[in-house]
């Protein structure tokens, strides 16, 4: 039964992710066509991040108190709504509204069925890692396919490509309603699970109490948040770095596909080794080296190679952190604490965007990304070292 549910989840995830990624490779020309300039496009992204921050924790509590399947399907419906606003609307404020809805969708989806399946697989680390890697590979495969399809669909349909995405969202909602599990209550039935859920405030307090009692959870949440200082500069600046290095914009699609293939390799490598704390230090050391080389390199080819290598250690590190967090969270508050982590990460994301914007006022995109990687690596290693001497308290 569980295997069938996981396959159904992968199928729905594949359909909705194809629709989600389809317009992303041509997002900038679409928004320019809607009347936005480059600075306004960045502000739209800030609106998305703020919405994610505001909605992440409430949706996590809602998923714990009601149904993770309901919240997951709701997230797809919100994405569908945001894409329709983009297609039918125009202007800066309307696009901000679309990205606020999209941010709410991202917040709703972040701690739903993935945590439901993680709770059922947590007793066997290899099974949990296989699930996480398979989920990522499904997302990556559909992202690559969608990016390739968008290159010719946009030429044929223009911004009507958003309507094609809407069809895929509607299909994924229909399939999800039929195939996804109806009962997403925790599998275990210890004393905590038997309690009837209290009011909203008690759920928040319960989740925070569980999180603060276990140093593993605190460390994983902090480390995941700090990764924003590596992830955001990479995803927001790589095109600028390539343009400064005189790469033609027509090659960006190939770089996007290459990034996804590197991500597949990262998931394969991650699924094949047993986690040890020293692995994190090795990965952070590699990211530190990439940051130093990226900051000092003068050759465009060297920078391009660094950009292509960067996702490999970064995604392995992210996979390790997600597995650590999911393995440590008590079943009853999985989505609540997962959303707490998402909220903290969203705050860090805003700070990282602010830092990148500040550095960009007097540094090149290349140096900004390199400096962010160096800062991220040093702070993360220091946190791991600090917490490694503290015994974890496992919540009852």
UniProtKB/TrEMBL annotation:
InterPro entries: MFS, MFS_DHA3_Transporter, MFS_dom, MFS_trans_sf. It is a multi-pass membrane protein. This is Major facilitator superfamily (MFS) profile domain-containing protein. It comes from Paenarthrobacter aurescens (Arthrobacter aurescens). GO terms for molecular function: transmembrane transporter activity. It holds the Pfam family MFS_1. It comes from the Bacteria. The chain crosses the membrane at residues 41-63, 70-93, 160-180, 217-238, 250-270, 277-295, 301-321, 333-360, 366-384. Its main location: membrane. Keywords: Membrane, Transmembrane, Transmembrane helix.
